[in-house]
Amino acid sequence: MSDTLPDDRSPEPITVESMTSDLRDLGIRSGQTVLVHGSLSALGWVCGGAPAVVIALQRVVGEDGTIVMPTHSPGNMDPADMGNPPVPDSWYETVREQMPPYRPDVTPTQGMGAIAECFRSCPGVRRSDHPQLSFAAWGADADFVIEDHTYDHSLGEESPLARVYDLDGDVLFLGTSHATNTSLHLAEYRTDADIATKTNGGAVLVDGKRKWAHWKDLDIDDEDFPECGAAFEREHLDAFETGRIGVADAKRLAQRPLVDFAVEWFDSNRR
């Protein structure tokens, strides 16, 4: 019989029960609104994988609270913007004519991780209608969070990020960091810094018919998010808590002071 551990970082399996305890130790409570950014692989050997993480979150937040996750599908974009890999110019019209339309119940996430991909299809979860930058939500305020997510200015005032702000929610990192902190995008829309705008495109359904849609948005940039997040934590020691979920570093941050700080930081540090 082998004594080799399935994940040498985990002296024991990470379970729903252990994650429930870890989340409560981090200060997550019943009735909270929590915007989750999670990396399953960072947590260690999770018994049951991504569904176990979702169950633990739901158990702690409860039906009186609300869980929100980004469920973006950036592959549904204009072919002229595709760069990883780029596509030949001669393909552009075919892509615009044939790209399957975004459907909240069907379209998979891309680059969001296994937890978000699992969460989007769980019973009771609702997903917003944005064809590239959707969010999914479960719980008491799920409808409020995801409804009326506009195509234009997709991470701004008519986005789920702004609704989490309205609800005075928290941001939760499970093995992730400010590098992927979507709440900082909301601050980009509120800053006076000069941020360029662009036209985006994607395939959508309108009255059951596929069409290619265009919308206006900021040319958002997350390159300085780690620097901004670190500055926030240095100046607001009372606005976040750190801990462990499984074997991963975890952090809970109050979203409102984070976004408010980031607005001023972008005003001062972006030109």
* Main beta sheet: 7 strands, mixed
Tell me the domain tally: 1
Could you name the ranges where pLDDT drops below 50 across 5 or more consecutive residues? Answer: none
Amino- and carboxy-terminal Cα gap: 62 Å
- N-to-C order of helices and strands: HEHEHHEEHHEHEEHEEH
In terms of DSSP E residues, the strand content is: 15-25%
Largest sheet: spatial strand order? 3-4-2-1-5-9-8
SS-derived structural category: alpha+beta
Shape type = globular
Radius of gyration of CA atoms, rounded to a whole number: 19 Å
Mean pLDDT: 95
Keywords:
271 residues; alpha+beta; seven-stranded mixed sheet; two-stranded antiparallel sheet; globular
Structural overview:
- This protein is an alpha+beta fold.
- It has one domain.
- It has helices spanning 16-25, 50-61, 92-98, 114-120, 142-146, 160-166, 183-190, 225-235, 255-269, and strands at 33-38, 66-70, 126-127, 135-139, 170-174, 197-206, 209-218, 240-245, 248-254.
- The protein has a seven-stranded mixed beta sheet with strand order 3-4-2-1-5-9-8. It has a two-stranded antiparallel sheet with strand order 6-7.
